[in-house]
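Most newcomers find our protein records easier to grasp once they have seen one. To make this concrete, we reproduce a full record directly below:

===
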Amino acid sequence: MSSQSVAYFEHHEGDYVAADESDINQYSWVKIWCVFLVQLILSIPNLVKDFIQQHIWAPKKSIAGSVALVSGGANGLGKALCFALAREGCKIAVVDIDLKGAGKTVENIRLTGGEAEAFRADVADTRSVQQLRKAVEAALGPVDILVNNAGLLSFVQMCQGTDEEIQRIINVNLASHFWMNRQFMPGMLQRKKGHIVGISSVFGLIPNYRTIAYGATKFGISGMMASLGDEIYFGGNGDNVFTTCVYPCLVASRKDFMKMVNKIGILVKSVSPEHAADLVVDGVLRNKSEIILDSCFMRFLIQIHGLCSTRMRRIFTKSVCVNTDV
């Protein structure tokens, strides 16, 4: 997008001009439907291909020799993703605010013959992310695969937690994706090679009253990744730079997190970080735009969620969260 097409609609005190009837855009439903049907008919072969690749089978690409950056790589799913990508022959940039933990991940990758470096960064801070890009490129080279995994787990309702804690959740879970993508995506577009992975959550598809701040950020990631994919596609790089949004359900990572899950009585099957990471990397190799890490039954319920009434959704919540009083 050129600088001339960037628009910020700011309001200055006393300087607001309201639109009138002459400003209302003219449209025709007939024209819209005609254009839509023509585009639909012309796209049938590609639509069939997309359906097969997304839901049935897709060939795998090779990412050997690529530089993969994983934020939140010291523990949990991030750590497992580092190992899974290393097994595919990637050079791994393990990024975390916990440098000691990131260093342990690097040591274990090197023991298996992989190449990895640890980097400390606060992904919620723009200056820290800028310095991170320079450090990674100097040590390993330009990033080809960016995995925005860093996030804060929280069971927090609207009026729980301090203002600072809520702001931190928003900054780490959502704003960081913007700062990371703005630093690393331009290089991918320039080289016409890259893959951006955003780790959202099933709570980014289905709301949950216990996780308002967390869920809001994950919904934000979902919308951002879909829009980002379109930006890349309509910018002419859809065949070179890919995006994948991942929706984990219940990954057995932190021990205290799993204790809380058991206390609430969530009746959803958990998966290990290693198994989840394997599924994510397999989806990346097949250029899948979305990956829902859950059972077929749960994936079906998630897909039809948009057709359900609010009452039906609440019945579903009560079914999988037995103890709603906790």
Q: What stands out?
A: DSSP finds eleven helices and seven strands in the chain. The CA atoms of residues 167 and 213 lie 9 Å apart.
